[in-house]
């Protein structure tokens, strides 16, 4: 077991790790915490309890399938999306480093030094030695709808086979790297800054800002006991072009 340098009591009032963050979110388990608006009219709403359930199952997969722990580099080759958020939270739950690449990334895959790759395009990473997880983005997907490289895990079917509660997870080293976005490395102690924003806010989060910015904003909102409506880049652009539709969405989602 990896042991944290200094033990501390859980802090759900001002969470500074994913475990405490989830404890805060499930204080009101039925309250919407993450609402996703995707292309083709997809809307997915995750309550605090449902979000915790997804993160717990994914955490168990990472630990039991890949022995993920501090030092493990988990590359998320995914767009701004609710599934990306779940995978990031699960990786941070086990103290791993989340590595991000852009959709148009032209760097050699091996240059990112991943141990695990979570991706919508597994063929791109089949030449690396990383373990592969193929992710189907549609909410109702029951399997990855394409050929998989040998040994790749199909997240659509695999995640649901794992337990709803975390069986065991390593402690987080707060000096370790939590996020590597290709331009800078963010340690765990900076991932959850001391300040907490406006309590209970419910806000739109624009997917065009990119995955790092979206994840940062989601964590900020949740730490303040808030919630988010995450918009795909396509939906965000459409709403910019249709202000009335944007106003209706704000009204229906009761944004603050």
Can you tag this structure with a few keywords?
single chain, Rossmann fold, 4-stranded mixed β-sheet, 8 helices, disordered N terminus
Please give the structural blueprint.
Elements: H1 18-25, E1 32-37, E2 43-47, H2 48-66, E3 73-77, H3 82-93, E4 97-100, E5 116-119, E6 131-134, E7 153-154, H4 155-158, E8 177-180, E9 185-187, H5 188-191, E10 202-206, H6 211-223, E11 227-231, H7 233-241, H8 243-253
Parallel strand pairs: 1-11, 3-4, 3-5, 4-8, 5-6, 6-7, 10-11
Antiparallel strand pairs: 1-2, 8-9
Helix pairs in contact: 2-3
* Elements, N to C (H/E): HEEHEHEEEEHEEHEHEHH
Compute the number of helices.
Answer: 8
Q: Superfamily at the CATH H level?
A: ANL, N-terminal domain
Share of helical residues: 25-40%
Q: Which sequence of strands runs across the widest sheet? A: 7-6-5-3-4-8-9
CATH architecture: 3-Layer(aba) Sandwich
Domain module count: 1
* Alpha carbon gap, first and last residue: 43 Å
> Which segments are poorly predicted (pLDDT under 50) over 5 or more consecutive residues?
1-9
How would you portray this structure in words?
This protein is globular. The strands form two sheets. A seven-stranded mixed beta sheet has the order 7-6-5-3-4-8-9. The chain has a four-stranded mixed beta sheet with strand order 2-1-11-10. It is an alpha/beta fold. Residues 1-9 have low confidence and may be disordered. It is built from eight helices and eleven strands. The longest helix has 19 residues, at 48-66. 41% of the residues are buried. Strand 1 and strand 2 (43-47) form a beta hairpin.
